[in-house]
């Protein structure tokens, strides 16, 4: 009898343990589901530009699942949109601590460092974002790295990263912007002919990109192709008459009208 009782107790323990584990899993699943509801509502508020409401939802989600890196990532975005960049940085760092290869968090953190003028830290963050082979949008980090190198005065490195971004994200909406940035660098380096090619490529991909029209006009003005310059400046005025580029285009067009 004693032997049978021991066997019965041991068997009971093995029955109870899975039940406890299953109950724990179910409880965790419920918590995750509740947190996801708040997180998804917060994401909707972010998209609508209601950053305070988004922040409230993400904070509620954090209380339920504080170890979820995505919640800290979205908290970082919400704080950034509210201008609370110290808190934003803290949240992105929490997200990265929970998921070391969180490329989106590394990239976003890099943009904040770049806005603050901490260019070396920014570049390091972009490199960390790109170190993850599963990163779905490397063109973002490459573009941002190009901007950072340009701000550092390292234009060759900037162009290299811009070209890599184009190669890895040919269908990205960033490509027209990247072509424009390359054009600006080349124009300032005195390579006006090649600058024109990049501005034209930018406009092939995005015909309403005002800044590319403006810079194309400036290039044609330098090349003394005055009719093409006029056409480019007129496009700027048509697309964005009240913008800073529109005002500059009007001045250039007036100059050309008087002197040509």
Please specify the SSE layout and strand pairing:
Layout: H1 2-47, H2 51-64, H3 69-81, H4 85-98, H5 103-115, H6 119-130, H7 138-151, H8 155-168, H9 175-188, H10 192-205, H11 210-222, H12 226-239, H13 244-259
Order of helices and strands: HHHHHHHHHHHHH
What is the tally of beta strands? 0
Q: How large is the radius of gyration? A: 27 Å
Name the poorly predicted regions.
1-11
> The CATH topology of the largest domain, please?
Serine Threonine Protein Phosphatase 5, Tetratricopeptide repeat
Structural commentary:
- The longest helix is centred in the first third of the chain and has 46 residues.
- The protein contains 13 helices and no strands.
- It folds into 3 domains: 81 residues, Tetratricopeptide repeat domain (Serine Threonine Protein Phosphatase 5, Tetratricopeptide repeat); 55 residues, Tetratricopeptide repeat domain (Serine Threonine Protein Phosphatase 5, Tetratricopeptide repeat); 88 residues, Tetratricopeptide repeat domain (Serine Threonine Protein Phosphatase 5, Tetratricopeptide repeat, Alpha Horseshoe), CATH 1.25.40.10.
- The protein is elongated.
- Helix 2 packs antiparallel against helix 3 and helix 12 packs antiparallel against helix 13.
- 81% of the residues lie in helices and 0% in strands.
- The protein is mainly alpha-helical and 260 residues long.
- The N terminus is likely disordered.
In a nutshell, what does this entry contain?
This protein folds into three domains: 19-99, Serine Threonine Protein Phosphatase 5, Tetratricopeptide repeat; 101-155, Serine Threonine Protein Phosphatase 5, Tetratricopeptide repeat; 173-260, Serine Threonine Protein Phosphatase 5, Tetratricopeptide repeat, CATH 1.25.40. The chain is built from 13 helices and no strands. The chain has helices spanning 2-47, 51-64, 69-81, 85-98, 103-115, 119-130, 138-151, 155-168, 175-188, 192-205, 210-222, 226-239, 244-259.
């Amino acid at each position: 009898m004693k032997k049978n009782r021991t066997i019965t107790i041991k068997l009971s323990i093995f029955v109870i343990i899975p039940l406890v584990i299953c109950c724990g899993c179910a409880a965790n699943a419920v918590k995750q589901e509740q947190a996801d509801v708040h997180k998804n509502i917060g994401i909707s508020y972010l998209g609508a530009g209601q950053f305070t409401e988004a922040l409230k939802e993400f904070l509620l989600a954090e209380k339920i699942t504080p170890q979820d890196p995505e919640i800290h990532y979205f908290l970082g975005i919400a704080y950034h949109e509210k201008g609370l960049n110290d808190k934003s940085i803290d949240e992105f760092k929490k997200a990265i601590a929970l998921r070391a290869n969180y490329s989106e968090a590394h990239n976003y953190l890099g943009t904040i460092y770049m806005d603050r003028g901490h260019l070396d830290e920014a570049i390091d963050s972009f490199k960390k974002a790109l170190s993850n082979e599963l990163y779905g949008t490397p063109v973002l980090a490459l573009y941002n790295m190009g901007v950072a190198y340009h701000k550092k005065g390292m234009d060759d490195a900037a162009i290299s990263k811009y070209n890599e971004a184009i190669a890895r994200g040919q269908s990205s909406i960033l490509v027209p912007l990247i072509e424009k940035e390359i054009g600006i660098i080349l124009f300032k380096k005195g390579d006006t002919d090649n600058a024109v090619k990049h501005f034209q490529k930018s406009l092939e991909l995005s015909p309403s990109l005002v800044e590319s029209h403006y810079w194309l006009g400036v290039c044609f003005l330098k090349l003394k192709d005055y009719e093409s310059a006029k056409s480019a400046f007129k496009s700027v005025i048509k697309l964005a008459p009240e913008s800073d580029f529109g005002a500059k285009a009007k001045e250039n067009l007036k100059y050309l009208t008087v002197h040509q």
